[in-house]
Structures are given as C-alpha cells and as structure tokens.
Amino acid sequence: LRVLLAAIGLAFSAVASATVPPPPPIALVSADMRPHQSLDGPWHWSVDPYRDGRAGFHGGPPGPSSQRYADIIQADVAAKDPTALFEFDMQRSPTVELPGAWIGHSPEMRYYNGLVWYQRTFDFTPQPGKRTFVRFGAVDYRADLYLNGKKLISHFGGFTPFAAEVTQFVRPGRNQITVGVDSERNSLDVPPVVTDWENYGGITRSVSLISVPETFIDDAWVRLTKDGRIAASVRLNGSQMAGFPVRLRIPSLGLTIAGTTDGDGRWTGNAPVTRALRRWSPESPTLYDVRFEAGIDVLADRVGFRTIEVRGEDILLNGKPIFLRGISMHEEELGENPVRRITPEAAKALLGTIKQGLHGNFVRLAHYPHSEVMTRAADELGLLVWSEIPVYWQVQWDNPGVLSSAEEMLRENIVRDRNRASIILWSVGNETPVSDARTAFMRALVKQVRELDDSRLVTAALLSARKGNVQTIDDPLAGGLDVMAVNTYNGWYTPDPLASLPELEWRSPVRKPLIFSEFGADAKAGYHDEAASPHKFSEEYQAEYYRQTLAMARKVPFLRGMSPWILKDFRSPRRQHPVFQQGWNRKGLISPTGQRKEAFGVLSKEYQALEAVGV
Ligand code: GCB
C-alpha cells in the first residue's frame, strides 16, 4: 500500500512540479541548539501486539464503542459518556524514562517486535506571534504522532529526525501527546528485515517542543569551500519569503556575510577566508560560534572549517594527505543492557576510547545515521566521521518506493549534519551484491549526495572478488565514488590460515583511494587459548587475525584508511552461540562493559606507529 501511495505521490508531484514545487519538509536544522522545552522524561507506555489501537477494538468507525489509543482523551470521553468502554488506559499504564528503546522497559519486552503506544502530558505557555513544532530525534521504525487527539504525521525510518508543526493544536495549559511506535519492518523497508544488529524499537532520541518566529531559519549551512571561501546558505520558512534580510556572523573572525532571500526564501553568500581562521582537524578540532540571523530569528551553532578532497589515490584533509586510522561502531552505549540511549557522556566514552586508547583519527558510524549527540561529540573531540544510511545487504532494488525511502533518509541525514566538520564521507550503503538494478539504485543515491553536499566525499562499503591469491574490487559502482571501500573477512569467514593473509594481493581497475571499511574476528573477552594455533573466539585468535590482516593491509599501495569491525561487542539477535556469543556479535575490540581484548593492543600499536610518522 505504501508503495502504491508513493507511486501516486510521485505521479502527483510530477504534475504539481509543472506548477509550484512542493515545499521541502520541515528541517529545523541545528534544532538541538535552539531554546526548547524538553519532552524527555517519564512517558506512559502500553503494548498493542494486534494493533487494535490503530484499527479500533470492536470494528466500525472511531467512537465510544471502537476506541483507538490515540484519537481520544479518555477523561473527556468518560465525562461525556459514563458507559464508555476502555480496553486500555494509557493514563494508568506504567511509565518509563525516554529516550531509550523498549528493550529496557521490562524483561517481557526483550524480543518484542510490533506496536507500542507512548503518551505523556505537558504544560505549555504560548508565546505571541510564535510558531511551535514538536521534534523527534529518532523513532524506530514507524511513528504515528497525535496531539490532543489530533493525528499530525506518520514518519518512517529509525535513524533520522522529523518535526511537525503544532501551532494550531497546542493549547495554553495542559496538553496530551501520543505516539504509536511500530518496530516491524517489511521487505519494502530500509534497512530490510534481517540485519546483524539489535533492532532497538522505540523512541531512541530526544523529543522537544521548539518555538520560533513566524518566519524562521529552517535550513542553514556554512562551510569552507575548496577555493578558500566561507560559503553560507539559508532557507526560510514562513509567510514572508522574498526579500527577507539574512546574514551569517562569525564574531570571533569579525566576519559577516549578508544578503536578502529570493522568492523561495533562499539565500546564498560567500566571503574570502580571513587569515585568522584556524582549520578544524583531529589534532586541533577548532569550532567557531556562528550565528545565522533572519529578522528576529537567530540560529546559533558551533562549526568547524576544513576541506576534504581526493587527488589520485590520496585523501587530502586541508590540502594534506591523510591516512584514516579508524574503527567501526554501532550506536550502542557501554554496559550489559544497552538501550541505545546516547548521552554526551556515552558518546564521549566511546569516541574517547578511539582517540586516546587506539590513537585513531576516524570512526565509521555504521550502518545508519547515529544520534546528533554522537556527531557533535566527534566535532568536539576531533574524530573524522563516515556517516551511512541503512541500505544494507539486500533491499528491493527495482522498487521506486524503496528508492524514495532511501533518498528521504539520505536527505534527512545530510541536512541534519551538513554543518559537522567531522563528517568527511557519506556512505550510500553496505555490502550490496552487484546487479544492474542495485547499481542503478546506488548511483541515484550518489547523485543525490552530490546535489545536496559538494563539500564531502561519497563512498560505499563494497564486496570484492577473489581468484587464487588475488582480490579484485570489480564493482561497477566504484568508478562513481570518490573513495572505494571494501569489507573483507578472509581468515574469519574463510578457512584461510591466518599466516597466509599477507600473501593476498589487492587490485583495482579504478585508480582511487581505498578504505578497508571492515575486517574482524570474534573473541569472547576473557577466553584464552594458548595453543600454537589458537581456536576461533579466543582473544589470541583475534589478536593474530589483526596482526596478519594489518600485515596484508600494509602491502596495499592504494590503501588510505581502515575501520575494522568493530570497537565494541554489540547485540545481535542472530548470534546465539551459547558459549561464545549469547546474543552478541563478539567482534568488538572491547567487551560490552569496556574490557579491552588483546587485539585492542595490536591495533593501538599499529595506529600509534602511524601517528608517530604523521599520517
Ligand atoms: C559484515 C557486515 C556487518 C556484520 C559483520 C559481521 O560484513 O557489514 O554488519 O556485523 O559483517 O560480523 O559478520
């Protein structure tokens, strides 16, 4: 049905675009920096495995005899109709602290996949002349949002923000907000149903109410261009779009770029870089306070300035060749029972381990856009970032509705994070087996990245083909990327003796920089095997796997970085070996609680040596 609707939508927008293009969805860029009323904290929750609250309990149209969870305020209904029957009662359901996935709500929720209702009240004081939005950092996977019984929007996709205007529906005093969160995905969704990570259904990122002037800055972007200018762009939302004065100010650089908007509320401007500008880099992650101003709306942000380019087989950061000393990471905090609650402290604990512990300068945020808390922490700590959308393994490549979903996520991700200097690579997918339909799909995503952001590089984690000892990157997508990346697991998923790995020779018909975006082996922290040929799952096997794979990597002439799999053991329902896995993928260099395995030291030593020679 969704695909049909998407197709109708596409047909309609094609007709509409001949006249007036539809307005872009609300972006509320850098919303986390705007003054807001937090709706984090206790929310009531109630499971709804048969989805009665959406469809109605007893059939028929909505009304006292067929209650939906969300479209009523029970007290109002009961006051009017004392005989009203409720088969649920949100206001008397238990509460949990949000954000956080429902896996942590109660032991029964461990394997729950389906619909859960959330509800809370809040007090609101309207400010004259202001518009108000409710914004969710992320809801996994589908969210149906209601305010005071009024359905506002549905959003699909578990990893990007969305907002809805509530100006007309929010009341002075007490309000009730309800969200139906459905974690079940089907074959038309992105990511597909089967992945190798925990689903973490629920409201996993912050919820806030944001009030802005009638005409406000919805999207704003500032960056350093390759020809050494500061370029800014702004898009307004409001009734007065044309001829609106806007400006960007960076007070500590004494820089102001000003102009007026066009008929669509858009403005772009640029100015040469002043000598005082200190460029952002992992060694010196300088951030500037910037202010976008449009009438009475002021949007503050903290932004770093750097350039990233490819020249031949080199990646240049601020004009200088760089080697990416990285590691991959899921969005999962340390601890035995993570609930995907990424606080600034949780983000800094993980990223700090990469920076200080591993001597890294790079993190691959796999396999979906991570919390904005994470990308802000990367900006502050000085870690280069690979950001990715969950086009993972197999999606329905020939379905235009699926492509639209992927494009929507990519747009939401790029618009949210375009001001983060740390992000240098947008990845359009992971391990997608080659076919004509898949390559056309992926090329459409690459094209979209280039339209939205000309200040970063495009990549994708590819597969390679092996013949004897020669491993070739023979993917037709490679030519359209800036940086090639491959995942390789010889010696773990193949029977190759570890000592033979350095004999593998890597070749590419395309002359571009290469990143090993994954390699790895499982080890249960604390399981040791001192035998001359240690067994898989031991710390010794994993450490030796790293030594030999690093020896292989050193011999690849066009390798410019790596992000082995993975920093921390992560929950994965498909990993059920009773002795070694217990529901966790154990390829982490640290255990769920942060205990370092032997291989951590092997990679750290390698990166320390690279750091010492200045790459
Ligand atoms: C991969 C996938 C990653 C898995 C990993 C593994 O190639 O990209 O999501 O978790 O292998 O452990 O098998």
UniProtKB/TrEMBL annotation:
<keyword id="KW-0378">Hydrolase</keyword>
<keyword id="KW-0326">Glycosidase</keyword>
<dbReference type="InterPro" id="IPR008979">
    <property type="entry name" value="Galactose-bd-like_sf"/>
</dbReference>
<dbReference type="InterPro" id="IPR036156">
    <property type="entry name" value="Beta-gal/glucu_dom_sf"/>
</dbReference>
<dbReference type="InterPro" id="IPR023232">
    <property type="entry name" value="Glyco_hydro_2_AS"/>
</dbReference>
<dbReference type="InterPro" id="IPR017853">
    <property type="entry name" value="GH"/>
</dbReference>
<dbReference type="InterPro" id="IPR006103">
    <property type="entry name" value="Glyco_hydro_2_cat"/>
</dbReference>
<dbReference type="Pfam" id="PF00703">
    <property type="entry name" value="Glyco_hydro_2"/>
</dbReference>
<protein>
    <submittedName>
        <fullName>Beta-glucuronidase</fullName>
    </submittedName>
</protein>
<dbReference type="InterPro" id="IPR013783">
    <property type="entry name" value="Ig-like_fold"/>
</dbReference>
<feature type="signal peptide">
    <location>
        <begin position="1"/>
        <end position="18"/>
    </location>
</feature>
<keyword id="KW-0732">Signal</keyword>
<dbReference type="InterPro" id="IPR006101">
    <property type="entry name" value="Glyco_hydro_2"/>
</dbReference>
<feature type="domain" description="Glycoside hydrolase family 2 immunoglobulin-like beta-sandwich">
    <location>
        <begin position="215"/>
        <end position="306"/>
    </location>
</feature>
<feature type="domain" description="Glycosyl hydrolases family 2 sugar binding">
    <location>
        <begin position="106"/>
        <end position="213"/>
    </location>
</feature>
<comment type="similarity">
    <text>Belongs to the glycosyl hydrolase 2 family.</text>
</comment>
<dbReference type="InterPro" id="IPR051913">
    <property type="entry name" value="GH2_Domain-Containing"/>
</dbReference>
<feature type="domain" description="Glycoside hydrolase family 2 catalytic">
    <location>
        <begin position="308"/>
        <end position="548"/>
    </location>
</feature>
<dbReference type="InterPro" id="IPR006104">
    <property type="entry name" value="Glyco_hydro_2_N"/>
</dbReference>
<dbReference type="Pfam" id="PF02837">
    <property type="entry name" value="Glyco_hydro_2_N"/>
</dbReference>
<dbReference type="InterPro" id="IPR006102">
    <property type="entry name" value="Ig-like_GH2"/>
</dbReference>
<dbReference type="Pfam" id="PF02836">
    <property type="entry name" value="Glyco_hydro_2_C"/>
</dbReference>
